[in-house]
Amino acid sequence: MKNKRFRKIFDAILIPALAIISGLLLMAILIAITGQPILESYKILLQKGFGCEKIGNCAILSTLERATPMILTGLSAVVAFRSGMFSIGQEGQYLMGSVVAAWLGYAIHLPSGVHQSVIIIASMLAGALYGYIPGVLKVRLGVNELLATIVLNTIAMLFTEYMVQFPLRGDKSTTAHSPIIDETAELMTFLPGSKWGVGFIIAIVAVVVIFIYLWKTKSGYEQRMAGQATRFALYGGVPSKKAAIRAMIISGALAGLAGSIEVLGVHRRLMTGFSVGLGFDGLTAAILGQSHPFGVLIVSILFAGVKLGAQLGLQLKLGIPRELGGTIIGFIILFVAARKFYENNIERIRGWFKSRGHKKAKGEGN
Amino acid sequence: MASALEMRGTQKYFRSTDVQANDNVNLSVEAGEVHALVGENGAGKTTLMNILYGLIKPDAGEVFVNGEKVEINHPDDAIKNGIGMVHQHFKLVPSFTIAENIMLGIEPNSAGFISQVSENKAVKALAEKFNLPVDPKARIRDLPVGMQQRVEILKVLQREAKILILDEPTSVLTPQEVKELETVVRQLSKMGYSIIFITHKLLEVMNVADRVSVMRNGKMVGTVKVKDTNIPELAHMMVGREVLLRVKKKKIKKGKPVFEANNISVADVNGLAAISHVSFKVHEGEILGVAGVSGNGQTELVEAISGMRGIDGGQILHEGQDVTKTTVRERRDAGVAHIPEDRMGVGLNLETTLDENLIISRYNMSEFSKFGFLLGKSIRKFAHDVVDAFSIKAAEPGEGISKLSGGNLQKVVVGRELSGSPSFIIANQPTRGLDVGSIEFVHKTLIEARDSGAGVLLVSVELEEILSLADRIVVLYNGDIQGELNASEAKEDEIGILMAGGSLEPAGKKG
C-alpha cells in the first residue's frame, strides 16, 4: 500500500522534474552564447535563488516571500480547474483584494491583530465577489468563464490604476501611490532584512486547507465530480451549478487573500503599475503543479527562486540579462506541455526494464 | 490446400496490467469462410486481431497467409498481405465525402493534383463490383451508422484485402442494419473473401458464420463448425460453465404502484418532442419492459424519469408522491436507482477511484458524510462490500477503474445502484455490450431486486432480454406507447409489429 502511494507521488513529480532538468540544460546553451562560464552561472543562480549566506541576507527567505502570492493564486486556479471552471481571473481577483487592502489599511483604524484580520477578510470577500460574477454568468446565462474572466481582468487592472491615480492617491508626487497603511495593519515579518513573514504561513495553511477541502469534504467531492465528469455528476444528483459557483467564490477569495498579503506584508501601499502578472504566475503554478495544492507549493517556490536567482545572481554578478530567468521558466512550461514525449519514453524504458525482470523471473521458475 | 490465414503460437503478455492476453493461440481461417471469433470481454479476441493487423507486437507467434510465412509489424504490412480491419469505432472523416474517405491516402492523382471526378468514378465502380451501393458524394456526417460501416468495408476492399476483420460490427447497428450486414458478409464470402467476425452475440454467430472459434482467458478453447453446435454449447465454451440463457423467475407478487407517469411529454436536446403524452405504471415486485427500436424516445424518457431532464407536461409520481419538479438528488434520496445506458460517460467517472464512483448517488447520506466531511473509513468498507457482493474482478478500493473490463464496469454501476435497496429501479440497456456471463449476472440481480419487492423499469432494444425478464411489456414507437402486452402471452412477432409502428387491433377484433 505504502509502496503504491510512493509510486503515485513519484509518477506525479517525474514529468515536472524532467521538464525542469531539460529547461536548465537548455539554459546552459544560452549562457554559453553570452560567453559566461556555465557551471559558475548555475552556482550563482542556485546561491541567489535558494542559498542562505547569513541571517540578514538569506536568499531562500526572499524566495519564500516572493512565492507567497504565487502559491495563493495558484491554489485559486487549482480550485477552479478541479471544478471544471477554466477561470483565468486570478489576476483580477488579486487586484480587487489588493485595492480593498490598501484602502482599509489607512482608512480605518483598529488595534493590531483586529486590523489585519478585518482587512484580510474584506479582501477575500472582494475577491470572492469578483469570482462570483463570472461564476454566476456561466451558470445562469452560459457565458464562457474564460472570456468573462479575461474581460474582468482588464476591468480590474484599469480600476486599480484609476483608484491609485485618483481616489486613493496619497500625495501629489510624480508617481501615483496610495498612503502607507497603518502600522496596525502590517503583517509581521520574522527576520530583519527580509519581508518573509506571516503571509507565507497563511499560504502554507491555505495549501493544507484546500487539499483537505477538495479531497475530504462533501463539497470538494461535488466540485471535483462536476469538474471531471459533467454527465456523471448530473446523473448522480450532484448540484453542479451550486458547485461551480462555490468554486468560483473560493477561487476568488484565495486570489483576494493573495492581494491583501502582498499589500499588508510587502508593499504596504498600492502604487501605479501594481499589477505585474502575479495572477498569471498562479496559473502557471497550477498547471505545472498538476492542479494539486502540494504541486503548486513546490512549483511556486521553485519558480520564485529561479526568477530571483536570475535577477540578483546572473544579472548583477555576471551581467547576464535577468530575462534569462523568465526564459528558463518558459522552457520548462514548454517541456511540460510536451509531456507526451516523456510519457512515451518513460513507458518504453520502464517496459524494457520490466520485460527483463519478467523474463528473468520466468527463466528462474523453469 | 493451405488455409487463407493461419496464426500459430501467438503469445502476448501485457506488463502494465499483468495479463497474459494471448497464451499460445492458434487460429486458421479458410478462403471464402465466415469465421466467428467469440469470447467474453477480456478473453483476448481484440488483442489477437490487433496482433494480426500489426497494431500490437506479439511476444511470440507466426502468421501464414496462403501457406507463406509473413512478418506483420505495422498495419501497412497487414494491408500488403491482404488483411483489412473494420474497427468497432469507425475511423472516418465526418466532413469528407464517401469517395474522399475511401480514397484517403491512395488518391489517384496527376502531378499532385487529385481529381474528385476520378475518385467518385473509382468508388462507384468499386461499389458496383461488390454490390454495395453508395453515393460517392454523400458526406459521412449525414449518413446513418450502417452506411458508415459499409464505407469502412469498401475502404478495406479498395485496399485489396482478401481477409476482412470485423470487430464487433453489430454492436452499433439497428436490427435491420444487422440483417443487411449479414447479407453483405455472406455475399463477400461467396466471392471468396474470408471474414473474421468478432462478436459476443451468439445468435449472430449461428446466423452468419461457417465456423466459430471460442476464446477464454487468453486461450483458444476450440474451433467448431456452426452447424455442429448450438447456443448453449457455445455459451458453455465461452464462460467455462453452464450458463442460464433464460433466467428463472418466481411468479409475480404484484404490489401497489411504486411509480406512475401520467401523460408526460419530453423534448429532446433540439427541443423537439421525443415523448408525447405517455402514461404507465410500475408496481412493486414487477418488471415493466419497455421495448422498441433505439431512438424512439427511450433516452429522453429515462432521463425525464430519473430527473436529469425536465418534462414539458404531465406528472410523475413515486410511491404516491408527486416528484415532477424534484431534482435528481431528491429522487435518489427517495429510493430511485438508475442504471444508465451509457456506463462510461454517464454511469461512471473513469478518472477517479472506485470508492468515489461508488458513492456518487449517496455521498450526502449520514453513512458516508458527517458535518460536511467524507467518512473515508466507511466509504472504504462500503467499497469492499460491493466488490465482494458483486464479485467485481480486478477492482481495488482506492484505485482507479479505467482499466476494468466492460462487464466489471457494469458491475460497479449495478452494485452501486442496487445496494441501497431502492424501491424503484430504472435499467436502461443494462446489458449492452456485455458478454454472456455478465448478462446472466445482471439479469439475475434485477430479478432478485424484483423478488424483494422493488419495481423495475427495464428499457431495452434486445427483444430477447425484454421477453425473458419483463412481467409486462409496453412498446415505444415514435415517442408514444404503441401497445401493451402481458409478457407471458406476448409473442415475438407481435412485439415486432408494434416496434415497427404497426397495430394489433385487427387481430384483437377477430379474437
Strand content of chain A: under 5%
Radius of gyration of chain A: 23 Å
Distance between the termini of chain B: 60 Å
Distance between the termini of chain A: 30 Å
What is the tally of beta strands of chain B?
24
- How many DSSP H or I helices of chain B? 18
Q: Rough shape of chain B? A: globular
Radius of gyration of chain B: 25 Å
**Major sheet of chain A:** none
Which homologous superfamily in CATH is the superfamily of the largest domain in chain B? P-loop containing nucleotide triphosphate hydrolases
The largest sheet of chain B has its strands arranged as: 6-9-10-3-11-12
Q: What class would the helix/strand composition of chain B place it in?
A: alpha/beta
Name the quaternary structure. Answer: heterodimer
Which protein chains make the most extensive interface, counting residues with beta carbons within 8 Å of the other chain's beta carbons?
Answer: A-B, 23 and 34 residues
What is the beta-strand fraction of chain B?
Answer: 25-35%
- Assign a percent range to the helix content of chain B: 25-40%
User: Low-confidence segments of chain B, ≥5 residues, pLDDT <50?
Assistant: 507-511
Key terms for this structure?
heterodimer; A: 366 residues; globular; disordered C terminus; B: 511 residues; alpha/beta; Rossmann fold; 6-stranded mixed β-sheet; 24 strands; 26% strand
If you had to describe this structure to a student in words, what would you say it looks like?
The complex is a heterodimer of chains A (366) and B (511). Chain A is an all-alpha fold and 366 residues long. Chain A has helices at 2-34, 38-50, 59-82, 90-107, 114-141, 145-165, 198-216, 218-228, 230-236, 240-267, 278-288, 293-318, 323-337, 339-365. The longest helix of chain A has 33 residues, at 2-34. Chain B has 511 residues and is of the alpha/beta class. Chain B folds into two domains: 5-239, P-loop containing nucleotide triphosphate hydrolases (Rossmann fold, 3-Layer(aba) Sandwich); 257-351 and 394-510, P-loop containing nucleotide triphosphate hydrolases (Rossmann fold, 3-Layer(aba) Sandwich). Helix content of chain B is 33%, strand content 26%. In chain B, the strands form six sheets. Chain B has a six-stranded mixed beta sheet, with helices on both faces. A six-stranded mixed beta sheet of chain B has the order 18-21-22-15-23-24, sandwiched between helices. Chain B is globular, with a radius of gyration of 25 Å. The chains are: A mainly alpha (366), B alpha/beta (511). Chains A and B meet through α8, α9 and α14 of A and α10, α11 and β20 of B.
